[in-house]
Every structure is written in C-alpha cells, then in structure tokens.
Specification:
Layout (H helix, E strand, L loop, with lengths): L2 E10 L5 E4 L3 E5 L17 E9 L4 E7 L3 E8 L1 E6 L4 E5 L2 E6 L4 E7 L6 E8 L9 E6 L10 E5 L7 E2 L5 E7 L4 E5 L6 E8 L2 E3 L2 E3 L4 E7 L1 E6 L3 E8 L3
Parallel strand pairs: 13-14
Antiparallel strand pairs: 1-20, 2-3, 3-4, 4-11, 5-10, 6-9, 6-11, 7-8, 7-10, 9-12, 13-15, 15-22, 16-21, 17-20, 17-22, 18-19, 18-21
Length: 242
C-alpha cells in the first residue's frame, strides 16, 4: 500500500444513518437528504447521495425533476419500472445498473414492478464533471460471476462496452467475496478518494472492521487492502475529492 498524502478516513456506521419512513417507502440516508441534514455528512468528495431504499409492492416515486446530477440506481432485490422525458420506458432488475445524467433537466418516475414483493435498491448521486450536458439514460446487466472474489467495474468515465459511462472522473465497482478472501482495491486515479459500502456480510478494509450497510471513505491511498470476515458484497465508489 502506498501513501499519496496524509490518509483521511470517514466512517459511517449503518445505525448512524438518517432515515425516512413513509409507509410505501423506507429509506436510510448515508448523506444529508430530504428532511435529514447533518453538516458533517453532506458529501464525500463528488459523492453526494447514497440512499438505501425499499419500496412497497405497487408503489413508487411519481414523476419528478432533476438537473445537473449523475444518478446511479442499483437494484438489490426485485425490479423497478422507470420512465423519463428522454423517452425511456423500461424495467431495471436485480443484476442491472442504471445511470441517468440529469444535465439541463430531466423528469422521471420509478415504481416497484411487482404488486407482491418489495423492491430494494441503492440510489446514488454524483456531482457531475461538466454541467448542463444533454440529459441521457443508460442501463446494463452485469454478470455476477464476473465479481466473484474480485472487483467488477460497472461505471467509469471511459466510453466502453464493458461499463456504463458517467459524466465525472468516477468509478463504481462491486465484489462478492468468500469468507477469508483478501484482495486490494487499486484506485484508478490516485488523486481520488474511495467510499466502500458493505451491502452484505462483513469485511476489514484498511484495518477497519465493517459490517452490514456500514460505509468507509478513504483519501490519500493508491491501494486499499480488504479481507472478508464473512461472505461479503462490497460496493466501491471512487470519486474526485475536489
């Protein structure tokens, strides 16, 4: 592990997150969102929102606007129906990742595709690299076997058939690790920071023990050592810090 500058650590335990319960929607907020505000938890670099959402059967978010934000949705179980003003009308399912550049302005709706089962998904906002671009939408399915005991990159700033493109120097990667498995996360840009979110299980990341839905942001490293202390699913969100 090499040090680029003084190492900075931002630790968010699952139980310290903000939250909202509207009946049809249960949400936990890693960063300030809606009625939850903590001046110490507004963002991690360009990472602005990390919401852990559960939507009841048949319910959802009616049409609402966004602008100048990169919005990534990752279903964890179930499926979401999505419509927006780019003309997109479809469904994202577990295994898919969705990205939307709000740019100059976009309106969309999201509903649980099922009338019987809840849908659980992560909604993540990243501050754009360039403002006022033309709104756009994309989604892609990612094979789970390609992240077995290694990081699978899903979102990157490079135009590629392998990843979804984001309007920022940001990278999203996910790994499914067996208990006891070790690996390093190598930053794609050593000037970036990286935020790890434990979707399932537990792991030790840079000597910090993390459990279910804990988050850890690290700055000043080029590689980060990870060991799964139980079967674990880990999301890594690498973003510029300025």
């Amino acid at each position: 592990m090499s040090t680029q500058s003084a190492i900075k650590k931002t630790l968010h335990r699952s139980a310290t997150r903000g939250g909202a319960n509207f009946g049809w929607l249960q949400s936990r907020h890693t960063f300030s969102f809606g009625s939850y505000f903590d001046p110490e938890r507004v963002h991690f670099g360009a990472l602005r929102v990390l919401n852990d959402d559960q939507v009841a059967p048949g319910a959802g978010f009616p049409t609402h606007p966004h602008d100048n934000m990169e919005i990534v949705s990752i279903p964890l179980s179930g499926a979401l129906e999505h419509k927006d003003t780019t003309g997109t009308d479809g469904v994202i399912r577990t295994g898919d990742v969705q990205i939307m550049s709000a740019g100059t302005g976009i309106a969309h709706s999201e509903y649980n595709h099922s009338d019987e089962e809840p849908v659980k998904f992560l909604q993540i906002w990243v501050i754009p690299g360039k403002m006022d671009i033309e709104p756009r939408y994309d989604q892609k399915e990612f094979a789970s076997e390609d992240r077995k005991n290694r990081f699978q990159m899903m979102v990157s700033p490079q135009q590629s058939d392998e990843t979804l493109w984001i309007n920022q120097n940001a990278y999203f990667s996910m790994a499914d690790l067996d208990k006891g498995q070790t690996l390093d996360y190598s930053l794609n840009d050593s000037a970036n920071g990286v935020y790890f979110f434990i979707i399932e299980g537990s792991a030790t990341i840079n000597k910090e023990t993390l459990g279910y839905r804990d988050g850890l942001g690290l700055e000043g490293l080029s590689t980060v050592p990870i060991e799964a202390t139980a079967p674990a699913r880990i999301l890594a969100i690498e973003v510029p810090m300025t």
